[in-house]
């Protein structure tokens, strides 16, 4: 017999079942979600709902890992929205509907926490949404508000080999190249706040970036010299 709750070929209609899961977080806030919808998008909940633990019977989960009012509310909102943000002509991501009244700079750290929640719940599609939301914000935000420099809770839980960590390091390297004066003046302060693995990864990115810039500059100068030589003939 197949498990009661499984991954469907397409997202199930929330109204096809009356079974409702209650998720309670440390703050005491509770969220209700249709069980089939929850199981479809999360391997964590799929295993729990099909398992022998009491939660499979009571449909009540006490969620603590990375569970804040922002992260869980965002996850539940996404479950029912079943959509992803789009890029406008000017490249902006209209995610105000996702983050609500949260301030722009504060949202970066909270979105990183939401990614950690998605990782814990084994919800890859939700994690992809967070990466899209973060992508532009990390490159256009204020230098010292970058999550690696203004650490959000549980920043140490980000795996060095994860997409989130890659994005954080790439975006910080980008900001350091764009704001060269700040990066040069405060290099020690920047690196002091990073762990060894992140520091090594960041320095590799900066070295590779410098090589690319030097190559582009060299190619440009060679092209200019060739054109000047042809002009004197």
Tell me the layout of helices and strands.
Blueprint: E1 20-24, E2 30-34, H1 35-41, H2 43-50, H3 55-58, E3 60-62, H4 69-81, H5 96-99, H6 104-120, H7 124-140, H8 163-178, H9 180-185, H10 187-192, H11 196-232
Parallel strand pairs: 1-3
Antiparallel strand pairs: 1-2
Helix pairs in contact: 1-2, 4-6, 6-7, 7-8, 8-11
Q: In a few lines, what is going on in this structure?
A:
The chain is mostly helical. It contains 11 helices and 3 strands; from the N terminus they run ββαααβαααααααα.
The major β-sheet equals:
3 strands, mixed
| Principal-axis shape | elongated
Helix and strand sequence: EEHHHEHHHHHHHH
The percent range for helix content is 55-70%
Mean pLDDT, as a whole number?
A: 80
- The low-confidence runs, each spanning 5 or more residues with pLDDT under 50, are 86-93
Number of domains: 2
Please compute the radius of gyration using only Cα atoms: 23 Å
Class from secondary-structure proportions = mainly alpha
Report the strand count: 3
Strand order of the largest sheet: 2-1-3
Number of helical segments with 4 or more residues: 11
């Amino acid at each position: 017999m197949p498990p009661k709750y499984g991954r469907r070929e397409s997202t199930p209609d929330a109204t096809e079942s009356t079974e409702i899961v209650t998720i309670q977080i440390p703050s005491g806030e509770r969220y209700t979600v249709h069980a089939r919808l929850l199981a479809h998008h999360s391997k964590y909940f799929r295993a729990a709902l099909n398992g022998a633990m009491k939660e499979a019977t009571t449909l009540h989960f006490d969620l603590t890992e990375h569970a804040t009012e922002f992260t869980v509310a965002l996850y539940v909102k996404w479950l029912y929205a079943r959509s992803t943000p789009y890029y406008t002509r000017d490249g902006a991501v209209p995610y105000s509907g996702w983050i609500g009244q949260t301030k722009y700079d504060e949202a970066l750290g909270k979105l990183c926490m939401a990614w950690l929640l998605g990782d814990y719940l084994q919800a890859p599609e939700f994690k992809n949404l967070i990466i899209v939301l973060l992508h532009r914000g990390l490159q256009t935000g204020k230098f010292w508000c970058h999550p690696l420099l203004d650490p959000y809770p549980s920043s140490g839980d980000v795996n060095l080999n994860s997409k989130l960590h890659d994005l954080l390091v790439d975006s910080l390297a980008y900001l350091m190249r764009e704001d060269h004066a700040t990066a040069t003046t405060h290099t020690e302060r920047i690196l002091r706040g990073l762990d060894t693995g992140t520091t090594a990864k960041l320095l590799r990115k900066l070295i590779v970036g410098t090589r690319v810039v030097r190559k582009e500059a060299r190619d440009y100068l060679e092209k200019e010299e060739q054109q000047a030589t042809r002009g004197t003939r």
